[in-house]
Amino acid sequence: MDASLVVQAGGEIPPLTTEILVIFAIIALALVLFITEPVPIDIVAIAVLVALVVLEPWTQIDPATGVGGFASSATVTVLAMFVLSEGIRRSGLINIIGTQIAERYGSNPFKQLLAVLGLSGGTAGFINNTPVVAVMIPMVNTLSRKTGISPSKLLIPVSYTAMLGGMLTLIGTSTNILASDVSARLIGRPFSMFEFTQLGLLVLVTGIIYLMTVGRLLIPERIKMSDELIEGFEMTEYLTEVVVTEDSRLIGKTVPDGLAELKVEADIVQLVRNKQVFSEPLARKEIRAGDVLVLRTDQESLLTFIESEGLELAPDAEVDEDQLRVEDDELEPVTDQRLVEVVISPEASVLGQTLETLNFRQRYDATVLAIRRGGEIIHARMDERRLRAGDTLLIQATETTVKRFANDRDFIVAQELTLPDFRYSKMPLAIGIVVAVVALAALEIVPILISALGGIVAMVATGCVKPEEVYPSVDWSVIVLLAGLIPLGVAMERTGAAEWLASVIVVYGVSLSPVVLLGAFYLFTALITNVVSNNASVVLMIPVAIDTANAIGADPFSFVLAVTFAASTAMMTPIGYQTNLMVYGPGGYKFTDFFRVGAPLQLLLTVVTTLGIVAFWGV
């Protein structure tokens, strides 16, 4: 660090150097890319790393330091925690607890909400919150069907408490682990396993009380539980039956060939022939005269379709959900089909692709009838829409296909509370391994890095996680993001960029007390976390917070904690945190719903967390 940049309260801002300007330019460009996301954020992080190394004369980041993030204890520990979380997920622990909640509290809305929030917040302190929320989405739908309460009333609270629950322990989120690593490097004080558990409990309880009272009133009921899926996805006007006439041009063609020749957007959802109902897979079915086709198309396209292809409307052309499930005594289903909602996971490999490029219908033996993206229902030009995290697909598929979706980490089946391949017999072993990992680190017998890596070995050795499941269980985008951003924090320190920002804060905040500055750091970090990665917020803000604390004579550790907690409260946008994206579609939310519910909570937590830090650690 350049000691000449240290400024006491009331001093002057030191001049900007070329090195600092280069770092600010890299940061500014990275923030723009993080917000606009023309490419995935992990690719942006790699670009930042490359820029830092290429511009070494100004950034002071040599190649070894640049790639050092991949060998960082924070990066490797986060990787290990993904595998440990997979072991817990595969054991079915959360699913069993969720089933018990559904059975015990399914008829009492207040107890239902309290139990759901307790499960979401409590478990997120020890395993990754993404699988927690993935299991809780279908659980919430089960509870909603029992009580008639909209899942919209429960899913935002589930996401928020999963975030807050991550602040119970060091291993609760990747952000905590990264913040501990940065804190150790800059002030020589990493976090212990339960370093901030008391504050985490205070924050979690505050969040639960808010969501049980004020927040409950602010959350809108976007999805009506009285709606069938057909109505909920506004499919009534898009599904109809047509009869193939003797002179139809489709006769003798297979279903894919017939679809390829259509001049309008339409899908053949079902084929009814001699009271037999055929659904996916339809690839080898040849269309015959007299066949009844269930089509997904709009009214304008339907008229064009009928005129050009030799079809006519069936006598009773209205299609309902029972018909798509083939619950008609006069019809015989050849394959057992049903409707189901499937959510695209935040770490899905299909993100950015379209149904067409994926060849979705043939690849998954499933027909997509509609897409819900937040509060928007998409029917037109679905094949051309790039899939996003949180998109909810209404699909028609067989039970076998639904089970494949349930076992695929790319998807979350929103109606399935019980998955078929949980390793219930391994549950005691999986729980014991996680407890051992936590205990060894908490008692400082071995560092968390070693205990977590040992946990991976134990999970595989005991069969809780199969060897071929280890690599797919890791969210590699998070790993690359961490590794790419860690050198940026180093560059901010070496070039004096962090101290320059701290000097600006000190000069203009000379009249503010340390407690107010502490709260300001919390609030500012929380705000930027809503539009950029929480790990990026930690890398950028902790060095500045530490230098500010040193300049005003405050405890830098308290400022580190403020930034760390704030980075896990991205509650005002659905894009701020991955669990928000996961509930965005299933809850049918609008973008502004998160601000309406999350903004008051964000302000409340600013006060509670700031005062909690002062009470527990001083300032």
Automatic annotation (TrEMBL):
A Pfam family it matches: TrkA_C
GO molecular function term, any single one: monoatomic cation transmembrane transporter activity
Any one GO biological process: potassium ion transport
Subcellular location: Membrane
Chain ranges passing through the membrane: 20-36, 67-84, 154-179, 199-219, 429-462, 474-493, 500-521, 558-577, 597-617
Membrane topology: Multi-pass membrane protein
Stretches assigned to the RCK C-terminal domain: 227-311, 326-411
Name listed for the protein in its UniProt record: Di- and tricarboxylate transporter
Originating organism: Halorubrum vacuolatum
